[in-house]
Write a structure and sequence with these properties.
By secondary structure, the protein is an alpha/beta fold. The protein folds into four domains: 159 residues, P-loop containing nucleotide triphosphate hydrolases (Rossmann fold, 3-Layer(aba) Sandwich), CATH 3.40.50.300; 68 residues, no CATH class; 128 residues, Rossmann fold; 83 residues, no CATH class. A six-stranded mixed sheet has the order 6-9-10-3-11-12, sandwiched between helices. A six-stranded mixed sheet has the order 18-19-20-15-21-22, sandwiched between helices. Strand 16 and strand 17 form a beta hairpin. The protein starts with 15 loop residues before the first strand and ends with a helix.
Length: 504
């Protein structure tokens, strides 16, 4: 019988495994960290809580050797350490699961897991051992995949879990997890929580970053609040409430997390008939003006592929897409853009952004693709960018800032701004609030509400159940590439959604 782990199996030691004192870090135009002190004990799970741009990601990059602090000290086991590169941190026992996944898409799962630490025998790669150990490690995070499989063909959720498997293949003393459930559904998240409870019970210390507050009550022992680059407080999770965490994080109360208003639902605008790809099988549905249409499924169900198929990113093997009764010939994303369809992808880093370009360039990228203007109007572009920075409360020094330097949540706001500027008739969002703090989520939900009030159609593909239930007028559930259920908001419940998601 497989043991079920919980917080009751964990015992936090008095031994301090890692500590940082007086950490300061600045970048051009911004003070990212200011005199930060933080500690973690053996077997303790410490949640780092703060809005996007608060300094959490910078802090974990300092702790893991990606950045060097301008001043301050870091200690491991009571001894001063200085990490010039991430490899030194890994060798010291620090593992990191970054929000933005890091993998080589063209090689196998096993090779990604053991990247830089390939097992060898007699001077040659020991593939047998590597494949066996990869399979064993993946089982720890609830995955049963062929280790020889190319990782580029895996789903976002699978890649997330493989990244975890990769990190724990080393002898980890401190595990840093940045939004580890952002691409996971409820079942996958439970596998992850089991791993966390087990690892902590065996003495692994974990820094846990998540904007899903309910998760913190499930896994954390202590919460450290970060705001504007400073640690503004900490509390034991047993003494906290959800509203207390929100107030400490954003400095204000958010009484209306899901501001869904009843918009006037109009005529059908989007009709998808008998859609066929290598993953989807005979998928047919329609969506209406003034409607938020939710799509849900478990890993491998095909729900993640629907948006990219409609948008022309995936090869259609069959089926039709009609907009306001007109059949579209969508062969590329540009065809979809011209037709009035926009798509916010789940993987913003690889699909949604030009990382080495400015916020302004990224905001205007779709605009220029559609307009085919030969000359850039810089004053116009700056004005548009500034409008969306203000509207979405994007934390950036200016529109000239390189987008790669922004936090994950603020990068997502740039992706959203890019499409909102086009005023599409149909906006498809794949994991729209992935890696976004609760304050920003509420702002985005209000924007979606405004869009449907204007008669637009919004499709959200999400693994976040509260978001799905609170914001959707209808919910389509996928199972093994097919539609397994269609649910009206009035009858929707988590139990019913999950029932359809497992094929029931």
């Amino acid at each position: 019988m497989v043991k079920h782990y919980s917080k009751s199996d964990r015992r936090v030691s008095d031994e301090i495994v890692m500590e940082a004192h007086g950490i300061n870090k600045s970048f051009p135009g911004v003070k990212a960290l200011s005199n930060v002190d933080i500690t973690i004990r053996k077997g303790e799970v410490v949640a780092l809580l703060g809005e996007n741009g608060a300094g959490k990601s910078t802090l974990i990059k300092v702790l893991s050797g990606v950045y060097q602090p301008d001043s301050g000290i870091i200690k491991m086991g009571g001894r001063d350490v200085h990490f010039e590169v991430p490899l030194q941190a890994r060798q010291a026992g620090i593992g990191v699961i970054h929000q933005e996944l890091n993998y080589v898409p063209t090689v196998s799962i096993a090779e990604n897991i053991f990247m830089g630490n390939i097992p060898k025998k007699h001077g040659f790669v020991d593939y047998k051992t590597m494949y066996r150990r990869s399979a064993e490690i993946m089982k720890l995070v609830g995955l049963e995949l062929d280790p020889k499989m190319q990782i580029g063909s895996c789903s976002v959720a699978q890649k997330q879990l493989i990244e975890l498997a990769k990190v724990i293949s080393d002898d980890v003393k401190v595990l840093i997890m940045d939004e580890p459930t952002s691409a996971l559904n409820d079942v996958e998240t439970e596998h992850l929580f089991q791993f966390i409870h087990k690892a902590a019970s065996e003495g692994v210390s974990i820094f846990y970053i998540s904007h899903k507050l309910d998760e913190l009550f499930e896994v954390a022992d202590r919460v450290v609040v970060v705001r504007d680059g400073c640690v503004t407080g900490e509390l034991m999770i047993r003494d906290a409430t959800r509203q207390m965490l929100i107030s400490r994080m954003v400095g204000r109360d958010l009484t209306d997390m899901y501001p869904k208003q009843s918009a006037k639902i109009g005529d059908t605008i989007l009709e998808v008939s008998h859609l066929q790809t290598d993953v989807l099988h005979d998928v047919s549905f329609s969506a209406k003006r003034g409607e938020i249409f939710g799509i849900y499924g478990l890993m491998g169900s095909g729900h993640q592929q629907i948006g990219s198929a409609i948008f022309g990113q995936d090869l259609l093997l069959g089926g039709t897409v009609c907009l306001e009764g007109k059949r579209l010939a969508i062969r590329t994303p540009l065809d979809a853009i011209k037709a009035g369809i926009a798509y916010v992808p789940a993987e913003r880093k690889t699909e949604g952004l030009i990382l080495n370009q400015s916020v302004t360039v990224n905001t205007m990228a779709a605009y220029y693709s559609k307009s085919r203007q030969m000359f850039v109007n810089k004053p116009h572009d700056r004005a548009v960018c500034d409008k969306w920075i203000k509207s979405l409360s994007t934390k950036t020094p200016s529109g000239a800032t390189i987008v790669e330097s922004l936090s994950g949540g603020n990068q997502q706001k740039v992706v959203l701004a890019k499409w909102l500027e086009l005023q599409p008739d149909v906006l498809i969002l794949n994991e729209p609030t992935r890696g976004i703090d609760v304050g920003a989520k509420a702002e985005i939900y209000k924007i979606l509400d405004r869009l449907v009030a204007e008669g637009k159609c919004v499709i959200i593909i999400t693994s976040e159940m509260p978001e799905l239930l609170a914001m959707s007028d209808r919910i389509m559930v996928m199972f093994e590439g097919k539609i397994s259920g269609m649910i009206d908001a009035a009858e929707a419940s988590q139990e019913l959604v999950v029932k359809y998601a497992i094929g029931g």
